[in-house]
Write a structure and sequence with these properties.
This protein has 325 residues and is of the alpha/beta class. The chain has two domains: 1-48, no CATH class; 54-324, Rossmann fold. It has helices spanning 27-30, 50-54, 68-75, 89-92, 101-111, 127-134, 146-159, 171-180, 234-248, 274-284, and strands at 14-16, 24-26, 36-40, 43-46, 78-81, 117-120, 138-143, 165-168, 185-190, 252-262, 265-267, 270-272, 288-297, 317-324. Helix 8 packs parallel to helix 9 (234-248) and helix 9 (234-248) runs parallel beside helix 10 (274-284). The longest helix has 15 residues, at 234-248. It is globular, with a radius of gyration of 22 Å. The protein starts with 13 loop residues before the first strand and ends with a strand. Residues 1-11 and 200-204 have low confidence and may be disordered.
Length: 325
């Protein structure tokens, strides 16, 4: 609009598009979309209905209920998201490594059909379980720390979500018990500890009190010796991940998929390819690697590592390693 002699200028309105997993897009794009059906002023009316695309699910699609365009979208090797805070984020944020339930929902939708079962051996505050609830799947989570289990249950009460099965205990023990009980799952997806909790390298210097990006919540999440982050070396951590994968193998049906969200590490002045090392151990347990999706959540904080003396990477992406039994 024009004001005080200044020329009129367009104001770009943005909204969440239901076709691209809540990604913000310019409203003008909707006005050229085949599902756009009019508007009045700032109002916009979208004629999109999920039923339109669900009807085009291939009759021989035995993996999921996605239409062809949704299938292709997931197979892109890079995933960038900007999810709004939702589903009890005010509670889940107590866990410094919680994953957006929307991300977990997106992954689960691809590798399962409605009503199928999902397992997460490192459940944390329940991002996977909430994601499964959002898309109508059954889920079982295993979590060592009772504090995080209670946070998950608080979220369910606050958000009015049905609680999924959450088992307290060491996953290396519980997985054996599940296999002995004859349990089977259609899909396993997990966000394990990324590494051992070595000495902090960012906080504690003379700038930490003044600058937020000099501080970090990177720390161990418990004092339990069974917590993988409390192991002494990366090699011990890699071996434990290999044992976990071996215990998962009999719990998955033939041809079932396993997705592991992992991030590389930088310690002692060296970049450590943790994703590669974990992937090798999982393959040795009888899984075949099918691919890697690089996930970048746009809210990842950038910190002044190495400044102003040396290059130290800000590892803002995470790798989603995908395997098949």
């Amino acid at each position: 609009m024009a004001d005080m002699g200044h020329p009129a200028r367009a104001i770009g309105l943005r909204l969440n598009c239901p076709r691209v997993y809540d990604k913000l897009i310019d409203m003008r794009r909707c006005q050229t979309c085949e599902d756009y059906c009019g508007g009045n002023g700032a109002e916009i009316r979208c004629g999109y209905s999920p039923d339109q695309e669900k009807a085009s699910v291939h009759p021989r699609n035995s993996l999921n209920n996605l239409a062809g365009n949704e299938w292709l979208f997931f197979t892109k090797s890079v995933l960038q998201t900007s999810y709004p805070s939702a589903h009890g984020q005010n509670l889940r944020r107590q866990h410094g490594a919680n994953k957006p339930p929307q991300l977990m929902e997106h992954i689960i939708e691809f590798f399962t059909k409605p009503g199928q079962s999902v397992l997460d051996p490192f459940a944390g505050v329940g991002g996977t379980l909430i994601g499964a609830t959002l898309c109508g799947r059954r889920a079982t989570g295993i979590e060592l720390n009772p504090r995080w289990i209670e946070v998950y249950r608080q979220v369910c009460r606050q958000e009015g979500l049905a609680e999924q099965e959450m088992i307290e205990g060491d996953c290396l023990t519980v997985l054996e018990e599940l296999a002995a009980a004859g349990r089977r799952f259609d899909f396993v997806v997990t966000d394990p500890p990324y590494s051992v909790a070595l000495e902090k390298t960012l906080s504690g210097d003379r700038y930490a009190g003044k600058h937020a990006n000099r501080r970090t919540d990177f720390d161990s999440f418990s004092s339990d010796p069974r917590d993988l982050r409390n192991l002494s070396t990366f090699e011990e951590y890699y071996q434990a991940m290999g044992r976990m994968a071996a215990l998962l193998h009999p719990l998955l049906g033939s041809g079932g998929y396993l997705a592991v969200i992992i991030r590389d590490s930088y310690q002692g002045g060296q970049y450590l390819m943790a994703s590669y090392e974990v992937g090798r151990r999982i393959e040795a347990a009888g899984f075949v690697m099918k691919g890697i999706k690089v996930w970048y959540g746009t809210g990842a904080r950038v910190r002044p590592y190495g400044y102003p003396y040396a290059y130290v990477p800000n590892i803002v992406h995470q790798n989603i390693l995908i395997f098949r039994r």
